[in-house]
Fold this sequence. Notes:
The chain has helices at 7-18, 30-40, 61-75, 102-127, 148-151, 157-177, 195-198, 202-210, 221-233, and strands at residues 23-27, 51-55, 80-83, 94-95, 98-99, 139-144, 182-189, 241-244. It is α/β, with parallel strands linked by helices.
Amino acid sequence: MTGGASGLGGAVVDMVVAAGARALILDVNDDKGRAKAAQLAGTGPFGPAAVRFVKADVTREADVQNAVDTATREFGQLDGVVNAAGIPAAERVLGREGVLPLERFTRVIQVNLIGTFNVIRLAAAAMDRNTPNAAGERGVIVNTASVAAFDGQIGQAAYSASKGGIVGMTLPIAREFARIGIRVMTIAPGTFDTPLLAALPEAARVSLAQQVPFPSRLGRPEEYAALVRHIFENEMLNGEVIRLDGAIRMAPK
């Protein structure tokens, strides 16, 4: 689980361990990653061996390869990957301080889009060595986009582009990996109650919740994790993007 120390990724780690499986947390935040692993140590049938943490930057090939190697060494093989690591961005192209610096746009694309692709390619190489199950499946990859990929707001040019790229590569990669039995899916969450939104003033959080048609509240990370579990278990889900958003369609700003 990339970004597995907290938020959506953290909820997936909780779900995986509760389901009786093992999880590797990949995150740049060393303190939160270790704390998450310690919190879950001793739970589930695998006890202290249920969770491992590897500090890694998804944009760095060596970091991700080390995480993949650790998972295969510690757990025997890598069966599933959830890409939840990412960074937010809210800057206008032509803001009050002038033109958006190109390096800030590039950074968002590098982490959110290229980082996701980096994990996909290295994880798939490990999954390709798995013995297929009775249905011919060797692994499942779940990516995280956003509703901003479809109705991005003013100031979300970089963020929407990064998440739109994840949406766009889902089907071609799923088609390519079909021959080796690896499914590829993407979830596009709406407004979820993550550490990012927790930092907002209460009035802003209430306003965001009220924009969701139904249920009129922020999404819960465990609801994202529940969808991940269903994707893992339902082998007909492949090459698709699922909006998980309570029917919200974001306004221009």
